[in-house]
Design a protein that fits this description.
Layout (H helix, E strand, L loop, with lengths): L11 H12 L5 H8 L3 H13 L13 H34 L1
Helix pairs in contact: 1-3
Length: about 100
């Protein structure tokens, strides 16, 4: 009789913590793998994904609602607008000083 192995799932916080052990605590992948019971290959994949986009990595199981998608888009747009505003404020300050 065969038993079907269930696939382990890990939440975002667990993955981020594992990657931070490697990157910030300078622990080796092999050691973290043994300590957490996660394969080395999996840790390498998590590390790669984290390094590509640490803010938006590991979004979940893919069941994102339209509302969540729109919120993410709006948050990114707001960040961009804030950056542009700050640049303009600095430019106004620089040009105001030049006129004096």
């Amino acid at each position: 009789m065969e038993t079907k192995q269930s696939r382990k799932t890990y939440d975002r916080d667990f993955k981020v913590s594992a990657v931070k052990l490697i990157l910030e605590k300078h622990q080796g992948v092999a050691k973290v793998s043994r300590d957490l019971g996660v394969s080395q290959n999996t840790l390498h994949v998590w590390k790669k994904v984290f390094l590509e986009d640490s803010r938006n990595c590991f979004p979940g199981n893919g069941k994102v609602t339209e509302y969540e998608t729109e919120m993410t888009r709006l948050k990114r747009e707001l960040e961009l607008v804030k950056e542009e505003r700050n640049i303009l404020k600095k430019a106004v300050g620089i040009f105001s000083e030049a006129r004096r």
